[in-house]
Amino acid sequence: MLALKVGDHVNTDMIVPGRYLAILDPEELAKHVLESLDMPARIRPGDVLIAGHNFGCGSSREHAPIALKAAGISAVLAESFARIFFRNAINVGLPVIVCPGISRLPDGCEIEVVGRVVRAAGLELPFVPLSAEVQEILDAGGLVEMVRRRLA
Amino acid sequence: MSQTLAEKLLSRAAGRVLAAGETATCRVDLAMVHEAGAQMLGPLGAMGVRRAWNPERIVAVIDHWAPASNEKAAVMHQRVRELVRSYGISRFYDLGNQGVCHQILVEQGHVSPGMLVVGTDSHTTMAGALGAFATGIGPTEMAAVFGLGELWMRVPESVLVTVQGTLPRGVSSKDLTLAVMRDLGVDGALYRAVEFTGTAVSRMPVWERFTLTNMAVEMGGKAGLITADRLTAEYLRKAGAAGGEYFAPDEDAHYATEVRIDAEALEPLVAVPHSPDRVQSVSSLGEVRIDQAFLGSCTNGRLEDLRIAAGLLKGSRVAAGVRFIVTPASHSIYRAALAEGLIADFADAGAIVTPAGCGACFGGHIGVLGPGEVCISSSNRNFSGRMGSAQASIYLASPAVVAASAIAGKIVAPEGL
Are A68 and A85 in contact (CB under 8 A)? Predict the structure, then answer.
C-alpha cells in the first residue's frame, strides 16, 4: 500500500468544501476530496492516508469519510483524530487508526500493517487498538448492520 | 466520588455513576437533525428502523440552504420533509419558521438543563451553555439514535476555563472565546469537555454564554459546558422550556488541564487566516482592507448581536466597495429585528439583510467569497475555503468589530469603546 501524507489539523472543509455539501452521491463527492491538495489526481484505490494531529476537525459532515472511502482510501492513520470524524468514519466503514509517530513517515512511502504494528520506511510503529465498542461496530460490518441485527 | 459537570451529566444519561475514561451506553433526551437528515433515509431503511424510538424527542430544522439555492439543495429539503413525515416528527422548523438549528433548540425551549442532546452538526455543543451535555454526531449515527434512542459515549476528561472579573466595555464573549482559542489551540480540548466558570461567566447573560460553548468544538471539544444557574432558569422560563435537572461540578473535581483568564485584561481580538486559534488583538493587526463583512451564524447572529451592529451603523454607511451581509440566526430573531427597526437601520446604511439561517458561514450560498477576497466574520471557522474560494481570507471577530469594520472598510475595533 502507498501512503499519501497530509499535515496537522486537516479540517472537513478541506476534505469536502461546503460548496459540495448538497451532493449526496459518494462517487461524485470523491472527485472533490481534498481537492485543494490535488488528491483526486493522486489517490489510487487501496492507498492509505497518513496524517498528523486532529485529522477531520471542524464540521460534522459525514461527506468527509464517505468521500475518502469512495475515492479508494483504504484507511486513515493519524497521530490523532477529531472525535466526530472518528465516529463517522467507523460508522460508514472507513478504518481509522491512531498511530503515534505516523507523521514521521515520508509522503509516498510503502506501508504495511502487520498485527498491531505499522511497518514503513524502516520504522515499526505500534498503533492504539480500538475500544471494545468501536470494535463491535466494525466486527458487525458497520453501524447500519449492527443496528439492523439488534432491531431484527 | 467527586465529579466534573461532564461526568455528572453523562452519569445521569447512563443511569450509573461514571468517571472520565469510561465508556457507557447513554439515553438520548433530545435529537436534532438539519439537512443532514436527507442522508438518514438510506441508513434508516437499511437498519430496518420503521419508527423513531420517540418522535417527541426529535426536532428537525432547515437551516443550511434557507431557502434552497439550487436543485440539489431543494432535493435535500424534500428528503428532510419525507423524513419528518415518515417518522412523525411534529417539531419541524421549515422555511418561514427556520433558523440555525442550535438557535432554534435554545430559543424555542427544546433544551433543559441535565439533558443529553445530540445533533447532526458540530456546533451542537452550544446547548451546553444551558447545563446540558450536547454534542455533534453524523447522520448514520443519528439513524441509529432514531432506532435505539441511545448511543455509546466515552466520558471525557474536562478542561476547566476560569474567567474572573468583568469584561471591559466593547469587549464581548466572542473576544473571550477567541482568547480561550489562543490559549487552548484547535486541539487543546480534543476528546474533552470544556467547562467554563468564574465570575465573568456567572454574570454573563445567557445569550453571550452561547458563543463560548458554541466554539468549544473549535478547541477540539466534545462539549462546552456551563453550570445552569439563576440566569439560565430565567432564560428558560422566557423560552418556555420545562423543568430540567440542575447539576454543578464538585469543588474537588479533577480536571485534565486548567486555563485562567483575566477578563479585565481583554481587548477586541481577531482570528487571522486560516485557523480560529491564530488570534491577535485588533490593535496589533495593521491595515487589513475588507471586501465583505458577515454578521450572523449560531455563534453571533442573535438579536443582541444585531442590536450592537445596528447601533454602530446608525448615522453611518457601509464603506464603498464593501458588502455587509447580515443573516439573523433564526426567523424569530428576524421578526424581532424587524419590529425593533433594526432591519431598516441595516438597509438604510447599505447592508444586505438575508433570510435567517446558516447563510454565508459555510460557503454554500448568499455571500460566497471569490479568490483573493477578504472577509471579516462573526462566525466560527476561518479555514481556507470555508466561505468559498480557497484563495480567500477570513478573519473572525465580534459583532462590534464586524460592524465597525464594515463602516471603515478595513478591520477596526469600534472607536470610543
Answer: no
